[in-house]
Design goal:
There is one protein chain. By secondary structure, the protein is mainly beta. Helix content is 6%, strand content 25%. The protein has a three-stranded antiparallel beta sheet, with no helix packed on it. A two-stranded antiparallel sheet has the order 2-3. Strand 2 (49-56) and strand 3 (61-67) form a beta hairpin.
Length: 121
């Protein structure tokens, strides 16, 4: 559902439990989900801290995302369909990319129990 209820739910035992490393393809298959496009709540702090870490074993590449914001939107390219061509003719099928976007929680301005989103100069 796209309704924002304000519930901050536990991720334990769900497809959203990404607190320990998982292989995303296997995670999508295990839980039979069509991808991620969700906000994850991270501990609210005023100093910069790590919010997400991704490791690609085949290449050894690591991406670490730091933030002072209370949320991170995780999106897994759910609408790529292979028609988009990249450099050298590379094809980008569904779930061939992802985004990690630091942000405030969705609808925070209307949810007083959420971390404050208003800027006060």
């Amino acid at each position: 559902s796209s309704d924002l209820t304000g519930e901050v739910a536990s991720v334990q035992g769900t497809c959203f439990d990404l607190r320990k490393p998982v292989k995303l393809g296997a995670q999508l298959q295990t839980f039979r989900i069509d991808g991620y496009d969700h906000n994850f709540c991270v501990d609210q702090q005023t100093d910069h801290r790590s919010a997400a870490r991704v490791h690609h074993p085949a290449s050894g590449r690591v991406l670490e995302v730091g933030t002072t914001l209370p949320g991170i939107q995780f999106y897994t390219a759910n609408f790529l369909d292979g028609t988009l061509k990249g450099k050298g003719g590379a094809v980008y099928p569904k779930h061939s990319a992802f985004c990690l976007e630091t942000q405030h929680w969705p609808d925070a301005v209307n949810k007083p129990q959420f971390p404050d989103v208003l800027l006060r100069p």
